[in-house]
């Protein structure tokens, strides 16, 4: 039976897009306390079911799919630009396809403005009206208002008119940054993208006996199963090692490994991989915030996902990408090791104009990662790193990084790194890593 919290989430998810909801109304409809309703609405906001806007309230919005993640709703735009909704509130749930900056004559502006667009413009009332008639929403910059008949038209067409105190350039930058962040999020594969869902996961109940484990083991060939109760809460995990030597009539809860390591669906696959390697485990139960089982992931699932990530083109550039985008391997003259060369750009320096500690750490880690991958050793998880700065590295200097394997096994490695600038040693590092085999 679903809990009150789950019932509220199911109720919110069933509401039509654009519906306005409130804590008091939810509490009354579902017959729960306002505190329970508030917590459920907050989780619904985290899941992308609703969006809360100051002076407007909470509205049901279109749930985003992974492939459509970079598109924003008008409700999200209001929050991004700290805007005020002047009209067309019923359309805040809609998704915008692109935004147009109205820095041209009216006729030219309308050629670029169409249905599903957002026109960013100042106090040009005619442009506001024509954009609405073309099916576009309007974002008015500079804190200006618009005419009452335009607000009325926005209400009739259910297309939002938003006012913000920011200038046009700042607004365009803020929205572009938000879309860029969405693109980066889209690239990051999460556990919920690769899990085997709970309805396809074989589970044992705390009241089952060891004989049930043998039955599932015979049917599936698997030896690891999560142990749950009637509310799907995870109590343990049981493996072939756990049941060894026990009679078939013994209860599973007597032999299972209690309080197993679990992950949330929003955990990145890279974090799950690190957890599995460090803890030496083959499978991880995926749970929600109430520790209810959502599915399972295996080490094979994680490795496949990591291989897919490497083959994907990078869309949104992250800070690590900016640091390493001109990071080119060259062959050392001695042929003893690879050398990675990089120019220190202004973005890579601190307030003193020398390379920052974080950037240097990123360069060292990335050079080791690329070097070991080229040696067919797989990806790395950094276990320990010690860095020594010997000389400051100035802006626009050429930095060369020389990684050298001191010791490497099947699952771990010890690497020595030296960094040179103008032929002088400027930094050293010692790194211990665990290897993710391919």
From TrEMBL:
Residues 195-254, 256-314 form the CBS domain. Keywords: CBS domain. The keyword Metal-binding does not apply. The keyword Hydrolase does not apply. It comes from the Bacteria. SUPFAM superfamilies: CBS-domain pair, HprK N-terminal domain-like, Thioesterase/thiol ester dehydrase-isomerase, Winged helix' DNA-binding domain. This is CBS domain-containing protein.
